[in-house]
Design brief:
27% strand, 11 helices, 8-stranded parallel β-barrel, alpha/beta, binds alpha-L-arabinofuranose
Amino acid sequence: MKTTIRISEQNKIGEVDKRVFGSFVEHLGRAVYGGIYETGHASADDQGFRQDVMELIRELQVPIVRYPGGNFVSGYNWEDGIGDKSRRPRKMELAWQSVETNQVGIDEFQEWAKRCNTEVMLAVNLGTRGPEAARNLVEYCNLETDTYYANLRRENGFEKPFGVKLWCLGNEMDGPWQICSKTAYEYGRVACETAKMMKWTDPSIEVVACGSSNVNMPTYMEWERTVLRECYEHVDYLSLHNYYGNPDNDTATYLASSFEMDHFIKQVAGICDEIKEEKQSDKSIHLSFDEWNVWFHSNEQDKKIEKWQVAPPLLEDIYTLEDAVVVGGLLITLLNNCDRVKIACLAQLVNVIAPIMTETGGDCWAQTIFYPFLYASRNGRGTALKAACNCGTYDAGNMKSVPYVDVSAILSEDKKQLTLFLLNRSLQDNAELDLQLEGFEGYTLTQHIAMEGEDLKAVNTASDPHRVKPVNKELSDQVVLSPHSWNMLTFTAE
Ligand code: AHR
């Protein structure tokens, strides 16, 4: 399959905000307990954080991690997770029907984040709680005043504020599964009042309002419009969430997930602009795709998990090569929409639909999806350029004219490296590239890595952790993308 790709240095999409390489840790399953935190584990540090896990997280160079939920946050009292650990309450956690010990809370998490070279994006509870608890948490985290909550932080041993800049106003408030879900109008009002109080407490913060929980919600789009009408001037971002999967083993359609994601982003951005116009506002609302990933493998096994356990093995998807190719494609779409998507969180980071898995008391390893994220995070920062791709198309499910090849092009800040991320969706055909790179005379191809292979269902496990990994392709003048593969090409200035 002949594929022409034209890129010009002059033709830019925008700067990539490094926060698109964010991730997410929720108090869910073994994400926290047995994941990032395990006192008594051979690799635990002085605070009980697993350093083997930390090492893999540092490799990914995740700049921001959303916390503590997810659905969990809608029933959470943040005060349960601070101060003397021996006095923290064990609670019935309704979102995931588990027992929460509160041995990790905001104090520990911000310390963990520092050790992982990352920042915290905090979600506040707009389910069982509201504006007051949210603004108290902002004071606890960010203020140097001689006032109750800032002093409480000092009493707990933290003289300096944590400096949390980015806040989510609740989580998936349109979902009937959410603790105390709301109508769009109810949520829009409370998001508005909460944002006001939080910003009066710390005017330097940015806040994200909840968009729809996914693209198939019955209120999708009307939710976005109503919420934005209520809180437009007080919020900075609108969230998008979506998970992809291949439950029917229809790989051609599954590989088109990133095409669907692109449509979703453009639709929500359009609604933001529509309300901007309606309000005659000078401000644009940008997007926070703060939950995205593949999630479907664990659905059946989760139904069998006993309730009210501490850290049960929930949402433990074991990812295939095929999933890694899809995740790589989703990253291409996020980069190509960097003019609107400023934040994105791979949901999640450890054990729960995650690139990193652990055995409680044992080893940790990188899942297949770890690798496209790793390469994109390390090489995908800079200026995104428009890439015109001329190739064949196919129809998949209700998606028409899905191109076989997708590409994103990133020029590094120092302009010494041009990186192309490429997806070949064809199940049978190689894609032979005709690369027309305008303004890149003197750049040479120095690396071609690929996630590819015959066995699309191959996985990494504790006993065989390196089965699926990117391969280094031999460099030649004719670049070829194998069928159903995700690739990275690096061109370096001489
Ligand atoms: O990431 C798992 C769950 O998916 C989150 O708790 C929720 O926000 C979403 O439905």
